[in-house]
Amino acid sequence: MRITRRQLLQAGAVAGAGLLVSPRHVAVGAPPAAPVTLFTEQLPALAELGVLDMQGGGSTSLSMVNASHLFHQQMGRTPTLAYQQAGSSQTYLGP
Fold first, then answer.
1. Residue 35 has pLDDT above 80, yes or no
2. Burial of 62 (0-12, 13-18, 19+ CB in 10 A)
3. Which pTM was predicted?
4. HEC string for the chain
């Protein structure tokens, strides 16, 4: 029996969909979770690090550090990358 490229792709798509909807992730009869409200937490701003006046000259050192942030009060802390000024414990979320 010969299998065509189209049949192979269709079989792969069906197998992939089967992996996405595995029985361990499906909660039958479970009540829906409470809806999560949007935008409850304020993101930290550069002003919280202290304003740096670069017009008068000078320099500073920023490091990229592993940090965590609470993006929503109904969810746990999330690991992030953040900027941190040398000698400070305050972090600023980066891109």
1. no
2. middle
3. 0.46
4. CCCCHHHHHHHHHHHHHHHHCCHHHCCCCCCCCCCCCCCCCCCCCHHHHCCCCCCCCCCCCEEEEEEEECCCCCCCCEEEEEEEECCCCCEEECC
Q: Which two tokens stand for residue 26?
A: 């499906």
Which tens digits make up the pLDDT trace of 38-77?
Answer: 777 777 666 665 656 567 777 778 888 898 888 888 888 8
Please state, in angstroms and rounded to a whole number, the distance separating the CA atoms of residues 55 and 64.
24
Greatest distance between any 2 Cα atoms in the chain: 78
